[in-house]
């Protein structure tokens, strides 16, 4: 599964003592369900590594509203 690639990146960064470049993650985006990892490159640019494609949806599906206090709005891991 693709999430193992992200975990392998985290392991390699840890072995290189570079885990401080991890800004956020690993995690899973709530809306797209894609695994992600946010890093900062040496120039300070944010880099997102993610697996699976983002869900683009079907225009005939009903609109889903995400409330700021909704737990599903947040990212989660392993669900």
TrEMBL record:
Keyword hit for Nucleotide-binding: no
Transmembrane segments: none
Entries under SUPFAM superfamilies matching the protein: Glyoxalase/Bleomycin resistance protein/Dihydroxybiphenyl dioxygenase
Record key words, sorted: Metal-binding
PROSITE patterns: EXTRADIOL_DIOXYGENAS (PS00082)
Matches recorded under InterPro entries: Glyas_Bleomycin-R_OHBP_Dase (IPR029068), Xdiol_ring_cleave_dOase_1/2 (IPR000486)
Record flagged with keyword Methyltransferase: no
Molecular-function annotations in GO: catalytic activity; ferrous iron binding
Protein name from the UniProt record: 3,4-dihydroxyphenylacetate 2,3-dioxygenase
Lineage: Bacteria, Pseudomonadati, Pseudomonadota, Gammaproteobacteria, Enterobacterales
